[in-house]
Amino acid sequence: MVNIVRGFITARPELATNDVQLIYAVWAWQLKNNKPNIDIKKMTARELMKKWRDGGVSSAFNISRSRRKCQQHYPETRGKNYVSKQKHQDTIKNDVKRSVNISDREPSKGSDKNSLKGPEIL
Predict the structure, then answer these.
(1) Residue-wise pLDDT tens for the chain (122 aa)?
(2) Number of helical H runs and strand E runs in the chain
(3) CA–CA distance from 60 to each of 1, 29, 47, 79, 122 (Å)?
(4) How far apart are CA 6 and CA 69, in angstroms?
(5) Rg (CA), the chain
(6) Rounded to whole angstroms, how far apart are CA atoms 83 and 58?
(7) Between the N and C ends of the chain, which has fewer C-beta atoms within 10 Å?
(8) Strands (E), 1-122
(9) pTM summary value
């Protein structure tokens, strides 16, 4: 599936940042290439969901996961938002580390010997 997704993203780079459009494109391709071929535009939502349920098309979750794996291993398939998301992720990681370091230095409330006792039994 990763190679199929890679092909779609290479052909249409806008699919790298939109899972819904990618899923639609993969499903339309799969249905067109099945026997008998089916035009996704002529299907009802119910018919499409039955195809998904019965394995007639790939799982939307599998397609989405394949896109993430593809972008992890093939940098050319990463969308425009990738770099900004990575920078934001680094900022969040640093904030979390800083918060953890501060809380490690501050004594917690109730850190005396009595707080280690369990609940009082009546």
Answers:
(1) 999 999 999 999 999 999 999 999 999 999 999 888 999 999 999 999 999 999 999 999 999 999 999 999 998 888 777 777 777 788 888 888 888 887 777 665 655 555 556 667 76
(2) 5, 0
(3) 11, 14, 15, 19, 56
(4) 10
(5) 24
(6) 29
(7) C
(8) none
(9) 0.68
